[in-house]
Amino acid sequence: MSIKERVRELVGGEVDGVLGYRLVGESHLPHLFKADDIEEMAEDYPVGERYPLASLVRRLQAEDPGMRIAVVARGCDERSLVELAKQGQVDLEHLVILGLACDEELARACGCSEPYPSEIVQGQKAEGAGEDHLVDKIDRLPAEERLDFWLSRFGSCIKCYGCRNVCPLCYCKECALDDAELVERGQVPPAQPAFHLVRAIDMAGRCVDCGLCEEACPVGIPLRTLYRKVGLAVRDNFGYRPGRSLEEKSPLAVLGTEKDLE
Amino acid sequence: MTDYQTVPTVCPYCGTGCGMLLEVSGGRLSGVLPQKDHPVSRGTLCVKGWTAHEFVHSPGRLTRPLVREDGKSKAASMEEALALVAGKLREAVKTHGPDAAAFVCSAKCTNEENYLVNRIARASVGTNNIDHCARL
After folding, report:
1. CA separation (Å) from A33 to A22, A26, A100, B3, B30?
2. pTM
3. Which value does ipTM take for this structure?
């Protein structure tokens, strides 16, 4: 069964709307479908046209908490939704997840290690891409070169805030990066390395490695590599992988001493 | 029930022409997303593009002409405001010549409107002092 066939069954019954992609010309644009426009729903899902659907679920549910919606979700979208649910930002009980598996080519293009959601409606489970070699490569550099590597990348930042704006896990109403005390207004590139490290620290234990930030970066800063590095620190120390399961408790959700985590 | 759709358009701020999606919810602009398959910007925007929706529903937005009298802004009709501007412009040109005037047009106007401003500047007033906010 395809996602679109499943959607035809769901709309007007189990759910009021479906968040997916509308085909406009050749573009796949995010859209909340209702019973009357469901036929405009795209049937293919090019990897180059991923949008932060998990953020949209969060926003729509915040506006209308009783709303019953379904969402087309790749592996990365589902992991974002799971992590958001654990942080009380998304209500999975009022949400139907329409799982979309990416094929091997897409998984490789995206550098994704788990290119499928927990339940698949459309597509076949494919092998994920391997680990990020850039993390290892940078780790092996002497400290000074490592610093140079990152500072030269951060130095090309045009401070578009796209990495934060597009991030499914960035939902704070007040963001440290908007605080004029912390980030000087009008200074481009932003103070180094504070700007990017504030984001990196915020990504520890949250980032599901969807890669939307890196795709949104106009100057090609290897943001995923940076966030993978902080993600590894959380994984190695706490065994926690953001978005992997609803049951695993995030180390960020624990108040107490190190002993409480054991 | 809430609705949500996106409308593809081109960023109004400069001459680059980045592709953006306007997010529309409940008849109001609620945000901007970069258009991933746009040939110019390929899914990226600068800070101006990312915040391009903010002025639309801004309470600080000018929605009707205001004329300053005795240091205070007073609501005026379009005819009143235009007559005042035309009168002052004519006066300046008459006293100091056509190059005393300059015209600045906007990427938020249509191409045709910008063309007309260019005609007013060059043909009616007689100056080449014309520029555009999109000339970065």
Report:
1. 8, 18, 17, 8, 17
2. 0.89
3. 0.92
